[in-house]
């Protein structure tokens, strides 16, 4: 009968360095495989949120149309000196401001003093500074403020919140003829849903 030495009978406790490195490597590989899946899930959630924003805006436009029998104008403005309609005049609020009540943004809409004061009026500072998430796609990481400048001098006039969703002015270049468009949202437009035949 052979005798086992005391050293042979001791239990081996702990990990070797190689075993520890193998476990760390396996965990690292698993994380590397799971990270893209997590990022894809986040991107899918952002896309879903973006689609939901478009759905809310579309519904608000439909509710506006049901109320006023027309889609909101691209923008309304007049020459402050003459009071006559002028695409480059004031107040200059566009379609996105006009549908605010239909996006459950009544307090903000009421702050605009019924769109009578110009965008640049100090009383509209609070409204101008408000960035609405419904007008932004979550995948956009850019600055959500746009600087309105005087065209002749390039001097900044004010900052305005941006939107990832634009109304279609038409096929004309807005710079060439700001008062005329063949889309849905142009100066003083009164387009009904029934007027839209091609999309």
Q: Outline of this structure?
A:
By secondary structure, the chain is of the alpha+beta class. The chain has helices spanning 6-9, 17-68, 95-98, 106-111, 125-129, and strands at residues 75-78, 90-94, 145-149, 156-161.
Structure description:
The chain is of the alpha+beta class and 199 residues long. It has one domain (14-199). It contains 5 helices and 4 strands, in the order ααββαααββ. The strands form 2 sheets. It has a two-stranded antiparallel sheet. The chain has a two-stranded antiparallel sheet with strand order 3-4. Strand 3 and strand 4 form a beta hairpin. The termini are far apart.
Largest sheet: 2 strands, antiparallel
Structural class determined from secondary elements: alpha+beta
For the secondary structure, the number of strands is: 4
* Helical content (DSSP H or I, runs of 4+): 25-40%
**So what's the overall shape?**
elongated
The pLDDT mean sits at 82
Distinct helical segment count? 5
> Any low-confidence stretches, pLDDT <50, length ≥5?
none
Counted up, domains total: 1
State which percent range the strand residues make up.
5-15%
Question: How is the secondary structure organized here?
Answer:
Layout: H1 6-9, H2 17-68, E1 75-78, E2 90-94, H3 95-98, H4 106-111, H5 125-129, E3 145-149, E4 156-161
